[in-house]
């Protein structure tokens, strides 16, 4: 019953405002004391939020800060436990995304929901609540996409589109409903730096027309260049609202993570930089009909260095990783590990020769979700004396897991905890730790800090740097350019299944790498930059 | 729309209580059925579940029926843990019986202690072969093993019918479709005088111990389980998916094949169209009811054997049709699946957001 009282203070000043102030200053959307609990976890704790017409409003926070839950509440995909929502100064209940769309709220999710085998216009039609005529709809798609600088061919099938173009489909799908509030969840994670600029232009144009935009991100520089206001969440609570232009990245980071951004220590490598891992002329046809085939990839990895591969997922990243780890086999001479040809060996055999690997997906690839940490230690560390005559010593596996938990500061209830009970950051620390403890000579790491909180990310990055300085050759594949510039010695770009030549970090910059991302392949990727 | 939502952490305790819940559900529903049929439920349940256990004959029959069920279930559970659904144990049992029976017919009249071991080996090969065909189809062409193993059941049944109607028909059998009666060296020795318990029970006993050791200690078993739960993680670890397919289908076929020899060289004593009362299918229920645990499956094997015995008692004492056995088996599986569904998921009542009352009042103001 206390809910009623809580919603009233939010209501009264807003109603008073109608009389005195111009309509423009009325918030289009206002959240009052919104709370959402999942069992014991409080995802959103008494959140207040006001978004005005024509405002680009950032919701800033780390992974797990409650940003996505809050957006899902606004979009009606999740219902709040407490609190009220006001839309144009009227209290509303949004109990489904359809209801949200009727009010004029559109949302572009971080992960697209498009059918690869259908055309653009068919995909858009599927999302419409009302009846439609495909021809007329195609015309409207072209109209809207041209008006907002989002060129799209409605007749093309989605599988032939680049990631940037797919995002356009999602945005156009929202715009067709003439939304007055558009929610974008981490929209730039899949875009090249150039494509990000194009997106920002579109968003600014929309804001000028009076559309309110809720922009969810953890990237400080983007928010500074785009947003008028920022609401900062930490641990489900609002820790502040700010005008990003008036802040520094450091001050925003403090609001976001509660302390200063971490700094990394890069000592120089003093050992001998011999080549320990090499790929020569690797070409591989993808099994996935919508995958990317690898074309003539060559690279060499030296002991003591971190080699970064930048690029947006879907440009051959998963295919390259599978070939390097041994999950997919290649002709034997294409991959060499410490002098030996290993293309024909499977992942377990390559691991025995000194190859460590941290895959992108933690749950289901790097770890078995329902299994304990002891069992997950056994997954790759079986060769560390945990198995004799085909029989497992679970006591030894447990000791190994405990060593990993302790040495890598993994927060878990113990070695018997199920992998899925750990937070993303802690599970990633466990997986990295498990591979590091096996003393690999070459280590391949995919998206090392994807979905990991800032503290854990800093720890993992420093661990990788330290490991390389002990003479291990490390290959990092990441979508986060900033991360690569922070930890790598050399960077190359994988785009359209081709790898650019590597450049020392000191001789390149984000702009140049971004150009390579879009320019390497002559196919779809170029249209992102266009 | 989505009435069931997955639980974050399904209870381990409930996972083991689930078979008991299923048992209770079966007893309650069974009572209702007895009531509808005009039988006194208490008396009927007594006849069905208690009376078979009151005589030494009943107890010995329990062992005779539990033994093949447990042996087959041990093999099936290998595959089930790896999410490879071999539902062709009935056919693999039949092929084992055919191979073993072939040896028995060839060795007719001979006396040697090696004939029975030879029959067991032949039966194991027959069952393994019948598991290997779906394994090949799965490994080479990615053919769904659920379908192929099921279809192979019919093929095996028709091969058996052909043999006992044709080349292997007992010349002195009045044209009945059956082989000669096995005797002497082609039968498992009886372990307890006056019962049908024979030495094939020892094979099951040893198998249970080996499977228990295998599951609790071996890396191979761990690899199978990883392959079932997370195929990508298995590839990452270097565990072969092809190896898992071959291993689990061939091994489970082998167990079913040996169980088939246990029947024809034991209680049945010949090849005929009724060598198995559906053991290959009932063992699937035994495996899940025993939570795919080698020891758990011993307990569930005895329960399933009791259902068979109780079904026979109900036919005699209550004049109920033979279908009563299948009915109780089906109810048990149904309630088990239902209990598991609610242990892994939670039922969501309606969609009433708690924020609604506050908002309704707000609009009224």
Write a brief structural summary.
The complex is a heterodimer of chains A (530) and B (365). Chain A is an alpha/beta fold. Helix content of chain A is 36%, strand content 22%.
The helix/strand class of chain A is alpha/beta
What sort of overall outline of chain A do the alpha carbons produce when their principal axes are compared?
Answer: globular
Kindly report the average pLDDT value of chain A: 86
Task: Report the mean per-residue pLDDT of chain B as an integer.
Answer: 91
- Side by side, the strands of the main sheet of chain B go 1-2
Count helical runs of chain A: 18
- Give the proportion of residues in helices of chain A: 25-40%
Distance between the termini of chain A: 56 Å
Q: What is the subunit arrangement here?
A: heterodimer
> Separation of termini of chain B?
33 Å
How many β-strand runs of chain A?
23
What does it look like?
The complex is a heterodimer of chains A (530) and B (365). By secondary structure, chain A is of the alpha/beta class. In chain A, strands 13, 16, 19, 20, 21, 22 and 23 form a seven-stranded mixed beta sheet that branches. In chain A, strands 6-7-8-3-9-10 form a six-stranded mixed beta sheet, with helices on both faces. In chain A, α15 links the parallel β19 (442-446) and β20. In chain A, α12 packs across α13 (394-407). Chain A is globular, with a radius of gyration of 25 Å. The model of chain A is unreliable at 1-23 and 521-530 (pLDDT under 50). Chain B has helices at residues 12-36, 41-50, 56-81, 89-106, 115-141, 145-165, 200-217, 219-229, 231-237, 241-264, 279-289, 296-318, 323-344, 356-364, and strands at 4-6, 345-347. In chain B, α3 runs antiparallel to α10 (241-264), α3 packs across α11 and α5 (115-141) packs across α6 (145-165). Chain B starts with a strand and ends with a helix. Chain A binds chain B through residues 1, 3-4, 6-8, 11, 39, 79-85, 90-93, 95, 325-327, 346-351, 357, 359, 361, 364-371, 375, 378-380, 382, 387, 390-392, 418, 421, and chain B through 8-9, 217-220, 222, 225-226, 229-230, 232-233, 235-240, 351, 353-359, 361-363, 365.
